[in-house]
Design brief:
Distance between the termini: 34 Å
Shape: elongated
Length: about 475
């Protein structure tokens, strides 16, 4: 099969109510006097007992990351919190991740460690009230709307990495929080999405919102997208890193970015509906689709992004749904990919964790077409996922677009759609036997072991984990 590879560079992240924020005017956190928190302000939060800043450790953009404290660092977006008015109370939105300070499961247990989570609409376990301390001038008790408990530095410790928890409120040092102003955010009406096709957002198209992100931005820019269908092509340029696209619908299928270009019609980026070049991109709770039809190359998503994360994303097309280019290193979790032929392909690194992969063609076809460079150990890992299809005994696990293709299906459920006797096949002059095709501890009607199904040993498997695939030279671990 002939393919067109995109190699020319382009010229040119999950807060519900904050959209493409103007960069905060960063000032040394330690030098700022505590002030009364107001909507639109960006602050560091410093418990009186420790003098350290509340942060999301490791600049994590993952839901569920637990909040800790660390020495305040000027300009550290992971320690900056935007105050957002919501339902008469406030959300605390981390500037780096775009996620909200959250009480897990709205627990009322004193000592529960707080986390970050994607911001919801008037979600009580993400809403807070601020009341002035009567014992410490200029400091505030931060009380959870769902739990009536206060944000606290656990045990009043001065240690770095100490947990930030909720506790029964008391006007004591570990619960007396100084809000140190480091910048301001634009005034946006509460509940306003970044993008809304019906005109109720700041922009009516996703591309317009991306265009508004400053070139070279260094903090997470969350573009929230109201449920609906957005028929457009979207490009995230290389000079706009840290962008997040977040669908606001009740499911990934409620927010759809779709177009119908092909590689053959001369469209940029192989006709992909969405192409991503900016590093540290993230997408959550949305669908990317190419609805052109069958018989030609119809990309939904074209990835050139390093450290890309996709959570609860649906990718829909036919041939060549998802292209993971050589420069890409990406992680998919709780997501869905469907297509007909070679619909996950390319030379980059991709891990699919707890995903659904569906072969929609009744005559079946190969799922993957990896082109992993010979000097690269890792290519595609399908991990603890489910592979299904329209018909039985018709689907192949993959074929090598380049001879050194590397693909591993590990601990996944392979349904009866898999051609159990011969699940790998050749591609042009590249033979599957000489590619690096592997399986390990798969289950289901489509699983099995025979001479056509190379298996990892238990000893080898230790070097083929999601973390090993994604670590790179910087130790990235989005798992």
């Amino acid at each position: 099969m002939t393919r067109t590879r995109v190699i020319r560079p382009l010229l040119a992240a999950l807060a519900l109510v904050v959209a493409v924020p103007v960069a905060a005017v960063l000032l040394p956190a330690a030098s700022q006097a505590a002030v009364a928190p107001v909507a639109g302000g960006v602050y560091t939060l410093v418990p009186g007992a420790s003098g350290k800043c509340v942060e999301v450790p490791g600049d994590s953009t993952a839901s569920g990351t637990k909040l800790t404290q660390a020495a305040c660092a000027a300009g550290a977006a992971r320690q900056q919190w935007r105050v957002v008015a919501s339902s008469g109370k406030f959300q605390l939105v981390n500037v780096n991740s775009g996620m909200c300070a959250d009480v897990p499961g709205a627990s009322t247990t004193s000592g529960t460690q707080l986390q970050q989570w994607g911001c919801g609409t008037a979600q009580a376990n993400q809403l807070w009230t601020f009341s002035a301390s009567s014992a410490a001038s200029g400091k505030y008790l931060v009380t959870g709307a769902a739990t009536a408990q206060c944000v606290s530095d656990k045990d009043g410790s001065t240690a770095g990495n100490n947990p930030i928890v909720q506790e029964t409120c008391s006007d004591i040092a570990r619960m007396q929080i100084a809000f140190n102003l480091v910048g301001t955010a634009p005034s946006t009406p509460p509940g306003t999405p970044t993008v809304a096709a019906d005109g109720t957002g700041q922009y009516t198209s996703v591309q317009a919102a991306i265009n508004a992100v400053p070139s070279g931005n260094g903090s997470r820019r969350v573009i929230t997208i109201k449920a609906g269908t957005y028929r457009e092509t979207v490009v995230v340029p290389a000079d706009k890193p840290y962008v997040t696209l977040q669908g606001l619908g009740s499911s990934a299928g409620a927010t759809v970015i779709v177009n119908n270009h092909t590689a053959a019609d001369g469209s940029a980026n192989n006709g992909a509906t969405v192409a991503v070049f900016g590093h540290d991109f993230a997408a959550t709770n949305l669908t990317v689709s190419n609805d052109y039809g069958i018989g030609v190359q119809t990309l939904a998503l074209n990835l050139n992004v390093d450290r890309g994360r996709f959570d609860n994303v649906r990718l829909l097309s036919n041939q060549d749904t998802l292209l993971v280019n050589n420069s890409a290193r990406v992680y998919f979790v709780n997501s869905y990919v469907e297509g007909t032929v070679d619909f996950i392909y390319g030379g980059g690194i991709a891990v699919f964790n707890a995903c659904q992969i569906y072969e929609k063609r009744t005559t079946g076809g190969p799922i993957t077409a990896a082109s992993t460079p010979a000097d690269r150990r890792y290519g595609f890992l399908i991990y603890k996922s489910t592979v299904s299809g329209a018909t039985a005994n018709t689907t192949q696990l993959g074929r090598p677009w380049r001879q050194d293709a590397q693909v591993l299906y590990r601990e996944s459920t392979l349904t009866g759609t898999i051609k159990t006797a011969q699940p790998w096949t050749d591609m042009s002059t590249s033979t599957w036997q000489n590619a690096r095709f592997l399986e390990y501890r798969n289950t289901g009607a489509g699983a099995g072991v025979n001479s056509n199904r190379p298996q990892l040993s238990d000893a080898q498997a230790a070097n083929y984990t999601p973390q090993k695939y994604l670590a790179g030279s910087d130790g990235w671990n989005p798992i």
